[in-house]
Design a protein that fits this description.
The protein is mostly helical. It folds into 2 domains: 6-186, no CATH class; 193-279 and 359-475, no CATH class. The chain is built from 21 helices and no strands. The two termini are 17 Å apart. The model has no long low-confidence stretch (mean pLDDT 90).
Amino acid sequence: MIFSSYSFIFVFLPVTLFVYRLLVIWRRYSSAKLWLVAASLYFYAQGSSEFVLWFVAAILFNYALGGRIRRLDGSDKKSRRSKRILLAVGLAQNLALLGYYKYTNFFIENLNALTGQSLTLKSIVLPLGISFFTFQLIAYLVDCYRGRVEEHSVIDYLVFITFFPQLIVGPIVHHGDIIPQLNQHRQAFFNKADVMLGLYLFSIGCAKKLVLADPLTAYAEAFLADLPGADPLTGWTAVVSYTLSYYFDLSGYADMAIGLGWLFGIRLPHNFDSPYKARNFREYWQKWHMTLSRFLGDYIFRSIYRKGAGSGRFYSAVLVTFLVSGIWHGAGWHFVLWGLINGIFVCAAHYMTRNKLRLPFLLAWAMTFAGIVGTRILFVSSGAAQSVEVFRKLFNIQEVLDAADWGMRLASFIAFNLYPILLLIISLGIALFVKNTREMTENFVPSRKHAIWAAFLLVLALFHMTEVSDFLYFQF
């Protein structure tokens, strides 16, 4: 079950929301939270039924471990040692679970390549959202170790981890984002402002996913599936399509998740802030998947670098952080390379900022966007070899020079690919010139205009809901 499906919109969501709001009105707050946990686990089981018991066991294990760590005051050497051991056990458990499901076959492939063996790959189905909720569990344990977690009930903890809008693809939430909200109950069964904003954001996200992202993804995937037979024009259209489709797919999910949060009275953090307007990669990563960047900054970068430690340490910390990001995104050397290249670009942006070097905006933006397209090619390819083939196809200048009727071919290409080209123009225009949903949320006052737009976008999305397509980040 995914957000952009009839079963979710017309069955799961209204039933879950109605019962939750009813229990809150009756002041059955614990029952309301338990209902939300049960509904969230049911939602998760629709996509990963074979993993749901492991998921619950991992959640409860981390809660018990975190509680034990919190109760050790660390005032003496023995308790400090115990805290470190318990933290190490928790980190090992979370990383082992993630490592088994996500990296076992990658390890076997590399072992076979190094030793010449032919070990059989395992048939492992990646559980939905494991990369996302593992980060949340790790952050929770580390914060328990650092003494940053206030006392809370197991029910509040379960809601924080399992809350279905953010469970599978984020935003990656911090316990401090969610748990304090759970006891600030809103008494009204129908809060006009919250419901209108929630529906407005949900409809925007749904339209992003179904009207823009899915067709662009389909076009780009068709190019990769027939790479030898494609020409440079198709290639350039496809790689830019993938660049935009990933943004609208992931930001569309985030908009829907945030909108659903508003319906339940829970504020989820924004995850995108117009990243394609960035003039360098430092700005880009401050605006793209912001909750992931926050996690990596808080728990990886700041574990390596302390203010005043020197430029060498700083740049090393940036590179290590992005290597971790690459490994987190996928099991493949091209993801490692993707992380390293992004880290180098971010280091270059920091270097220019520190030395007050500034390019004209249009040049800086064009170079940044070109870098985003290039790194996206590496990201979506099946491996480094396919990435090289894509770049060769894009820069096959000889094919261009040999074509005597290039103008005719260009006109023919545009005529036969008018729909994806128009979608690209519209998508790029929205990404660069339209307010993002964070800006729309600020000082939001519900009006008839918002209701009309929400209805129009939702109906438009429903007409495109003929086939249920997964979100691109489900594979991570």
